Amino acid sequence: MENLHNNLCQKYSWYDRWHGFSASHHFHWGAFVAVALFLTTSIVTGIMKVQAETAAVPQYIGVEYYVDPKTGNDDFEGRSPEAPWKTLDNIVSNNFQPGDKIYLKAGEIYRQTLQVNSSGALANPIYLSSYGKGAPPVVSALDTLSDWIHDSGNKYSRRVSEMPNAIYQDGKLLKYELKYEDLNAPGEWYYNGLDQVLVWTTDNLSPSEHEIAAAVRSSALHIVGQSFVTVSGIDFVGSNTTSATDGGAALIKNSSYITLRNSTVSSAGAFGLSLIKTSNARIENNLFEKNGQEVPIDLGSAVYGQDNVNAMLIKNTIRGNSTNGMKLNGLVGGSVFGNDIENNIGSGMVIIRPAATFIQQNNIRNNGTENSGYFGLVFKDSLGGNEVTQNLITGQLGSGGLHALGAQDTKIYSNLLYGNQLNGAVIESSFNLWFTDNTIYGLGGGISQYGLVLRQNRELQVYNNNVFDALQYAVVSESSQEDLKMDYNNLVGRKAVALWGEKTYENLDQLSQVSGTDKHSLSIDPKFTSIFEKDFSLLSDSPLVNAGFPTPAKVDFDGKIVPVGTAIDIGAFEQ
Predict the structure, then answer these.
(1) Which of 345, 88, 408, 110 is nearest to 235 (CA)?
(2) Preceding peptide of 136 cis, ω within 30°
(3) Is the pTM of this model over 0.90?
(4) What pLDDT, on a 0 to 100 scale, did the predictor assign at position 253?
(5) How far is CA 373 from the centre of its chain?
C-alpha cells in the first residue's frame, strides 16, 4: 500500500500537493473502511447464496441394496452383500428414496423384469448397477425351456403354460409355423394351440443340446413415469412385444432425467430400446445388437425414440441388428453424438420431425441391404434449427448415403460420404436447407452412380461441396428447383458433370448457361491425401484450398475451426 502511495505521489503532482492537506488522511481511512465493508458484504452474501443453493438440493446419503439369486432371500433386508434379496420382486414393491443404490450380483441371470417404481432427485438419482466380480448381470425377458421329449423324426416337444411370442436357439430366432405339418425343416417351431411347443433345431440335434428360450415378458427394463434414475452396467435381453410404446428389451416412457449407460441391450424381437415421451434422457456408451429378428425391417429399430425432449444419445455402438439401427421420431432439442452404427440390415439412422437437434460425429458404416430403399442417414420432415455435421457415412447398401426428405431450416455441412451404393446424397422436397462443405466420393468400381441428387426443393443453398468420381453424374436435378443457389463446388462425374432435367452436360460451362448455377465451381482432381488409405483431406497444393464461399459451416470434418486460410476450402476438410 505504501509503495502504491509513493508511486502516485511521484507520477501525479496534483496527488502529491493534495496529500499535503490533513483532510487527505481522513479520506484514506474512509476509503479503506468503505472497501473493507464492501468486500466483507460480498463474501458474506456469496456464502449465504451458496448455502441457500445447497439447501435447495437436499443431500441424501442413501441406502445400498443387494440382490443375488443364488445366496439371497427376499425376506432379508437386502442391505448388505451378506444378506441380499433373491429376486427383483422387492425392487418392484419398495419405495426407494433419492440417493438409494441397488446392486445386482455380477455374473448372474435374472429372468424377470427390472421394474423401477421410484424416483430420485436432482443430484441424488436412484442408482442401479452391479457388484462383485464377473460379467455384467443379465436381466432377461426370455425364459429357458428344458425337459424336451422326442416327438417324431427331428421334432421335440414340451409343455408350456401359454404360447410364447418367439423361440430362440442360442440367441437366434427360429421360424414359427402355423400348422404342425409345416414343421418340416430345421430351424422351425410350432405351438399346438393348447399347451405344447414343438421345435426342430437348426442342426437336427435335441433341443437339450442348446439353449432354447421363449420370449414371455414385454421388457427386461421397465421405467415408466419416473425421474432421476440411473442404470449402469446391467445387460437387458429380449421382449415379447412388437409395440414400441408397450415394450422393448429396455422401455423408458413418460419419464425425465433417466440415464442408461454401459449396458448391452439385445435379442428383442422388434425394439431394443424404446424411449417414449421422455425428457432429458441420457443414453450413453451402450451396445445394441441382435434386435429386430421378429419383424420386417421397417417395423423395428435397435434404438427407437418417440416424442422426446432434450434427449442425448452419445457414443453408443449399434451393430448387427435385423432392422434399422436408430430411429428417432419427434426429437426436440436433442443431441445424437459419436455413435458407431454398423452392419444393420436397414438404414443406419432415421431422424423424423426433429427440431433444434444436432446430429454430429456419428460413424455410420456398412448398413443396409443391396438394391433396397435404405440410406445410411435419413433426415425427414425436420421442423427447423437442426444441424447435421461431421458424420461419416460409408458402405451403405441400398439407395445411398444421405437422404434429406422434407427437411427445412437445416444445415448439413462438413460430412464425409464415400462408397455408398447408388447415390452419395439425395435432397428432396426440402426448404431453406444449407448443404455445404461436404465431401462425396464415389469410390470407383460402380459403387456410387450419382453424387448429389436434387428433387423439387425450394431455397436450397449448395456451396463448397467436393463431389468426385461418381460413376455417372456428379449432380442430378430430376425436377425444377425453386430459387436454387449453387456455386463454388467441385463436380466430377465419369460420364458427365450433370444430368439436369433430361439433358446431359459434360462440363460446367454448359451447366452454368442452362441452370444459372456453378459459375465459380470447378471440375478437377481435388488431390486427396490418399484415397487408398481413405484419407480424403487435401494436399497443400490442392486447387480446392481457399477456393470456397462463406457458409454457416463452423468446423471441418476433423473439428478444425474454419476458415484457416484466406477463404474456406471446398469439401469437408480444411487444409
Answers:
(1) 110
(2) no
(3) no
(4) 98
(5) 21
Stretches in the chain below the pLDDT threshold 50: 1-5, 7-19, 21-29, 31-58
The answer to whether the Cα torsion of 217, 218, 223, 224 is positive or negative is negative
DSSP 209: G
Q: How many residues does the chain have?
A: 575
Measured CA to CA, the distance from residue 161 to residue 238 in angstroms comes to 19
pLDDT at position 36 is 43
CA pair distance 33, 46, nearest whole angstrom? 20
Beta carbons of 215 and 239 less than 8 angstroms apart: yes
Specify whether the CB–CB gap between 529 and 441 falls below 8 A.
Answer: no
Residue 283's contacts (CB-CB under 8 Å, 6 or more residues apart) are 259, 260, 261, 273, 275, 303, 311, 312, 313, 314, 316
Angstrom distances, CA of residue 417 to CA of 71, 205, 248, 431, 534: 54, 46, 32, 22, 11
Helix (H) or strand (E) holding 87: none
Contact 159, 172 (CB under 8 A): no
- pLDDT score, position 162: 86
Q: What count of other Cβ atoms lies within 10 Å of the Cβ of residue 176?
A: 17
| CA distances from residue 547 to 430, 461, 558 in whole angstroms, order as listed | 27, 17, 19
Q: What three-state secondary structure class fits 224?
A: strand
Q: Residue 463: which of 433, 432, 438, 486 has the closest Cα? A: 486
User: What DSSP character marks residue 67?
Assistant: E
Q: What pLDDT is attached to residue 60? A: 57
Any residues with CB less than 8 A from the CB of 293 and at least 6 apart, and which?
Answer: 166, 172, 173, 267, 269, 322
Between CA 449 and CA 467 the distance in angstroms is 12
pLDDT score of 229: 98
Q: How many CA atoms are closer than 13 Å to the CA of 179, on its beta-carbon side? A: 2
Phi and psi for 528 in degrees, rounded to 5? -65, 155
User: 3-class DSSP state for residue 48?
Assistant: helix
Name the strand (E) or helix (H) holding 348: none
Looking at residue 22, the DSSP 8-state letter turns out to be T
Position 444 scores a pLDDT of 60
Beta strand extents in 297-415 (DSSP E only): 301-306, 312-314, 317-319, 324-329, 335-337, 340-342, 349-352, 358-360, 363-365, 375-380, 386-389, 392-394, 400-405, 408-413
Residue carrying C-alpha cell 462425374: 493
Q: What is the pLDDT of residue 443?
A: 80
Q: How far is CA 258 from CA 65, 128, 152, 154, 440, in A?
A: 20, 11, 50, 47, 38
Q: Distance between CA atoms of 575 and 307, rounded to whole angstroms?
A: 40
Q: Does residue 404 contact residue 412 with C-beta atoms inside 8 Å?
A: yes
How far apart, in Å, do the first and last CA atoms of the chain sit? 54
Q: Which of 302, 221, 296 is nearest to 259 (CA)?
A: 221
Spatial neighbors of 212 by CB under 8 A, at least 6 apart, are: 144, 145, 146, 148, 167, 168, 169, 199, 201
In this structure, are residues 341 and 368 in contact, taking their beta carbons and an 8 Å threshold? no
